Structure formats: structure tokens, C-alpha cells
């Protein structure tokens, strides 16, 4: 017996398994005048499908799937509202195959095996091929997914599965290898806007009974965040409010009231985008964590691309925190990876954690200043040939050219650092990096002068009580300046290198 989650064409369900409403020929509950607006506005054919142009070219897998040209099993992976269930409807309508739809939310192994058994009997008797659509397939356990393998392998059923989760983590490898993976993209603003306008004018939608103001339309597009189902649901709620008020138009106030989300003054391509982003960065730089979280929330609610926010955090971690907290870059990079792996809305937690860390971290722009000064010198033409001792000496003839001659291997010195020229002649003695005294960089600021003295072969600063015991400003070993060992030198350098 098929469960309530299973709507099948060609095999009547028993009394206990009848679906809650009438069943259309495509295996889904049929569309009626009181169906939700997103359901009523589903495309009637593949040419009405919007936003997946990369999969709709002639001969592309998605077009073949819808037309039934090739009986291949497919996994549709994409965010909510991008058209996965719509594609299933198109597949069901476009061919004469038996179509069975179930949801992994409330179907089990017994339901899957029942479909497969029926499909096998019909196939042996010359009946139509079976297409099995499983929504939210990532919610199936490994055992449930295992139950599909043999039937998909021998094409007893053609599997059409939909998931919002990364299938490389949520679908078992044997099943994934038997299917073609199609990645659906979230709809861009232009696509969502076009579908809203279609819903306003089309007889399946509002039929032109109401006008949608430009500001209200912008609000619904921002609210959707690429999810057309969300946009159409909000439009339907706003239309009901406008009708109840007896007006012939949906304005911004009506749209806001209907969906209970204030319109955020934020244009991702305009001044507000840059102003809010600037305020966000400056709040973190100023260590005002509360302001930074406000601007983060402002961007998220307005539908800003989470990847853009993550990129700004990665840049900020080096530009404004830098060596004062070297771990900040790892935090920001991890947040960026989490955005790709998890996606919104959950990824807002990862972004918030990174923002809190960066805003409260000690700040240093020494890395920014250092690379800026170095680039400026290069662009000004400074920097001669690579010193002979640093040149590559690994190829035949290099030694004959003197490459590598005189190079001193730092690890041969107990301190791990030796006197040696690493820069071109015209840059000797130039300091690009100037550490601050903030956070973790404080220890670098203490260690760096000693490192520079050893590398450049400079004498140690005079002690208050006069020169060192050697009297010549050099360490007795001759390998570095006085004070580069014992309590003044080698121990400090060694600890800093570890």
C-alpha cells in the first residue's frame, strides 16, 4: 500500500492511503482556484521555466529530462524556490510515463519498495516506464537510499530526486554515481521581478486586478533573496491585504504590513549598498561590535549576497586586524567556507561569529602599510637584480654562473638566522614592515629589531654601561651582533621562531 506521501498514476490507492485531495494525471494534487499563488503560477512548459538557462540549451540534460528523450536518473540540487519541484511537474506532464511522487519527510523503505515492485511488474507486462520523484532526498537514511540502488541501476525506475543539501555529503556515493547531478542556481533579481510581473498580469495569478507599485515590487524582490516561492507567497499576502482595503494597487506600506518585514533601504547596485558596507567595515575597524552586527543584519535582511559579506571579512582580517591577531584570518576564511557549505539562513551565525571576533580583536594595519610601501617602490622602479647568492642553483651550469655562491643556510646556525643580504642593492636597509604594539604583534615588535640587526650585520645598540665584553660590537662567534645570544639574543630569536 502506498502512503499518504505517495501519489501514483496507474495504480489506484487503497482507502487508507488516499491523498488528501484529488490527484491529477501528473501524480500531484491538481491546481485549483484556491491553490497557493506559487502553485498556480508554475510553468506550463519548459519554455516558461526561468533562471536555469545554463541547463536549458538544446540537448542539455535538463531539457532531455523534461522531454523524456533519455531515461536517465537525475538529482536536482539547488536552494529553495529555484524550481526543483516545478521541474518535476514538467517531467510528469511532458511524457506518458507513469509518474510517482513522494517526499522523504514521510515516506520510508516500504513505500520505496512498493513503487519499485509495481514498476517492475508493469515493465514486464509492457506497461509504461516509471519515473519516481523523491523530494528532500537528503532526508532519506543510508538504508533508504540503498533500497533505490538496484532499481536505478537496471532502470526499473527513472529516479528524479531533489535536494537543498550538498549531495556529495547527503547522498550515498553509489546512488550519486548512478545519477546525473544538475546544479540549479538561485534566481537573480531580474528573474524574480519578471515572475512577479507575470503573476500580477496572468490569469492564473492576479489577472491584472491589482497594480503593483515599483517600491513594493522592489521590496518583494529583496525579500525573496532568489526564492521565487517566497516572492509569490508575499505577493499573494499583499494582494489579499490590498483587496481587503478596497484599493486597486499594492503599495509599499501594504506589502510591508502583509509580510511583516520592513523594507530595508538598500540597493545592492546603488549608493545605499556602498554606504552600508562602508559603515560595516568602519564599525569593525572602530571595535564597535554592536554597530557592526547592526550593519551585518541590515545587509542580510536586505538580501545582500552572503559571499560578498564573507569576502569583505576575509579582506578586513588582514587589512585591519593583521598581525595583532593572526588567527583572525583563519576565522574569516572559515566563515567564508561555511557560507559556501551551509548557505543562508544558517550561515548568518557563522558570519556573526566572525564579525564579533574581528570587531573585538586588537587592530593593526601594519600588513596593509607594508605591502603598500613595497608595491610603491616596485612601481617606482626600485629593486635591482636578485643577489647572486639567492639565485636558483639547481640547473646545469648555474654554479658556473656563480648562482648560489656564498649563500648561508639559516638552519645551520643555532639561532636559525644569519647575516645575509636578501634584497637588491638599492633596497638595503629599507624597512617596509613596522609592527604595532597591539595584541600578538607586541612580541613581533620586540623580536623584529634583533632579527634585522642579525640579518643586516648591524652592531647592537650601545648598552648604558658601555660596549660588550668583546669590545668590537660583535658576538664572539662572529656570526652576529653583540647581544644576539644568551639572555639578549639567541634565546629570544629561537623562541620567536617556534
Q: How would you explain this protein's 3D organization?
A:
The structure is a single chain. The chain has 20 helices and 8 strands. The chain has 4 domains: 7-183, Rossmann fold; 189-259, Helicase, Ruva Protein, domain 3; 271-360, Zinc Finger, Delta Prime, domain 3, CATH 1.20.272; 369-497, post-AAA+ oligomerization domain-like (Orthogonal Bundle). The strands form 2 sheets. A 6-stranded mixed beta sheet has the order 1-3-4-5-2-6. A two-stranded parallel sheet has the order 7-8. Helix content is 44%, strand content 7%. The longest helix is centred in the middle third of the chain and has 18 residues, at 228-245. Helix 14 runs antiparallel to helix 17 (347-360). The chain is of the alpha/beta class and 498 residues long.
Write the layout of secondary structure elements.
Layout: E1 7-8, H1 37-40, H2 61-67, E2 74-77, H3 84-94, E3 98-103, H4 109-124, E4 130-135, H5 142-146, H6 149-153, E5 157-163, H7 167-170, H8 173-177, E6 180-183, H9 189-201, E7 211-212, H10 214-224, H11 228-245, E8 249-250, H12 252-259, H13 271-285, H14 289-301, H15 306-321, H16 327-342, H17 347-360, H18 366-379, H19 441-456, H20 490-497
Helix pairs in contact: 9-10, 9-11, 10-11, 10-12, 11-12, 13-14, 14-17, 15-16, 15-17, 16-17
Amino acid at each position: 500500500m502506498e502512503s499518504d506521501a505517495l501519489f501514483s498514476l496507474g495504480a489506484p490507492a487503497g482507502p487508507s492511503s488516499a491523498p488528501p485531495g484529488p490527484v491529477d494525471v501528473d501524480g500531484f494534487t491538481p491546481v485549483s482556484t484556491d491553490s497557493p499563488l506559487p502553485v498556480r503560477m508554475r510553468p506550463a512548459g519548459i519554455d516558461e521555466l526561468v533562471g536555469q538557462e545554463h541547463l536549458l540549451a538544446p540537448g542539455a540534460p535538463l531539457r532531455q529530462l523534461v522531454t523524456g528523450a533519455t531515461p536517465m536518473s537525475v538529482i536536482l540540487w539547488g536552494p529553495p524556490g529555484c524550481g526543483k519541484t516545478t521541474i518535476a511537474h514538467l517531467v510528469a506532464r511532458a511524457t506518458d510515463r507513469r509518474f510517482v511522487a513522494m517526499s522523504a519527510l514521510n515516506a520510508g523503505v516500504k513505500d520505496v519498495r512498493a513503487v519499485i515492485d509495481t514498476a517492475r511488474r508493469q515493465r514486464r507486462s509492457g506497461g509504461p516506464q516509471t519515473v519516481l520523484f523523491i523530494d528532500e532526498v537528503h532526508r532519506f537514511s543510508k538504508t533508504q537510499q540503498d533500497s533505490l540502488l538496484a532499481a536505478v541501476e537496471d532502470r526499473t525506475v527513472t529516479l528524479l530526486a531533489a535536494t537543498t543539501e550538498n549531495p556529495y555529503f547527503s547522498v550515498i556515493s553509489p546512488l550519486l554515481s548512478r545519477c546525473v547531478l544538475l546544479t540549479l542556481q538561485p534566481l537573480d533579481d531580474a528573474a524574480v521581478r519578471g515572475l512577479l510581473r507575470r503573476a500580477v498580469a496572468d490569469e492564473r495569478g492576479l489577472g491584472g486586478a491589482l497594480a503593483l507599485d515599483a517600491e513594493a515590487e522592489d521590496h518583494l524582490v529583496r525579500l525573496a533573496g532568489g526564492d521565487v516561492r517566497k516572492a509569490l507567497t508575499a505577493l499573494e499576502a499583499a494582494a489579499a491585504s490590498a483587496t481587503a482595503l478596497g484599493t486597486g494597487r499594492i503599495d509599499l506600506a501594504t506589502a510591508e504590513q502583509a509580510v511583516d518585514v520592513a523594507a530595508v533601504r538598500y540597493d545592492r547596485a546603488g549608493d545605499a549598498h556602498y554606504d552600508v558596507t562602508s559603515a560595516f567595515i568602519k564599525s569593525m575597524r572602530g571595535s564597535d561590535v554592536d554597530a557592526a552586527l547592526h550593519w551585518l543584519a541590515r545587509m542580510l535582511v536586505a538580501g545582500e549576497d552572503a559571499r560578498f559579506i564573507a569576502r569583505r571579512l576575509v579582506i578586513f582580517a588582514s587589512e585591519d586586524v593583521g598581525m595583532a591577531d593572526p588567527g583572525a584570518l583563519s576565522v574569516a576564511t572559515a566563515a567564508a567556507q561555511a557560507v559556501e557549505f551551509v548557505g543562508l539562513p544558517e550561515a548568518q551565525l557563522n558570519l556573526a561569529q566572525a564579525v564579533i571576533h574581528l570587531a573585538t580583536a586588537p587592530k593593526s594595519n601594519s600588513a596593509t602599510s607594508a605591502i603598500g610601501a613595497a608595491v610603491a617602490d616596485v612601481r617606482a622602479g626600485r629593486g635591482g637584480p636578485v643577489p647572486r647568492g639567492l639565485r636558483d642553483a639547481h640547473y646545469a651550469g648555474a654554479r658556473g654562473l656563480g648562482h648560489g655562491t656564498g649563500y648561508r643556510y639559516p638552519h645551520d646556525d643555532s639561532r636559525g638566522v644569519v647575516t645575509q643580504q636578501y634584497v637588491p642593492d638599492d633596497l638595503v636597509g629599507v624597512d617596509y614592515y613596522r609592527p604595532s604594539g597591539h595584541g600578538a604583534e607586541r612580541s613581533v615588535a620586540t623580536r623584529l629589531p634583533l632579527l634585522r640587526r642579525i640579518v643586516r650585520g648591524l652592531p647592537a645598540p650601545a648598552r648604558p654601561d658601555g660596549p660588550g665584553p668583546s669590545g668590537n660590537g660583535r658576538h664572539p662567534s662572529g656570526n652576529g651582533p653583540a647581544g644576539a645570544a644568551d639572555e639578549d639574543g639567541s634565546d629570544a630569536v629561537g623562541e620567536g621562531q617556534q
